[in-house]
Amino acid sequence: MSRLTRPSRFWETLAVVIVKPLSWLLIKRDWRRGDRIPRTGGVILVANHLSWADPVLLAHYLYDHGRWPIVLAKSSLFKVPLLGHAVRSLRAIPVYRGSSDAARSLHESAERLKEGGAILFYPEGTCTRDPRLWPMTGKTGAARLALETGVKVIPLAHWGAQELLPYGEKRPRLFPRKTFRVSAGEPVDLSKYAGLPPHAPVLRDATADIMAAITEQLAALRGEKAPETPYDPDGR
Fold it and tell me: Where do the Phospholipid/glycerol acyltransferase domain residues begin and end (predicted)?
């Protein structure tokens, strides 16, 4: 077991003992296509973001399908007493936004991938602001990392976490018991970008392909047609 890709036995056991029973208590599960998640080797897992609850619920899904998810978390969380120590001990990677340290999270992610880790990315960077909760346009970090390392990118879509804990609310809505739906897709085909310099247009196009793959999975989960154009929070 690599020190970079999994926590110590104590921290892993503690997280599992807390998260799994809590998840079972709060939600019903509709988990699909976990067979598409590689059990070994470096892999980038990209997901839509609906609620502050979905990282924990997705972690349960991934753990039960053989992977310890390495989550990218805001650097400010690492400064909170006790919580910061726990987040770091669970092998999360700090994200330094809007600073000279912003590239450090991608460099550390690349190192974890080389060690065989599974990196969980939210390419939107925050919970969606789309009025109908479809994925927004994405940031280019996951695409850059994928093109740099050549590892597989597996799209994950989920639905239901927003009913348990709507974005912006602090108290969960426990009743009636919610259903958390998750589906993993086939690896995103980024082969047409292989060997191209990581210039902005290349990264934007690769990111659009990644977001389209997530949206396709989500449309199947919701049984609805996705919008033709993703919501752009910057109004572009």
Answer: 43-161
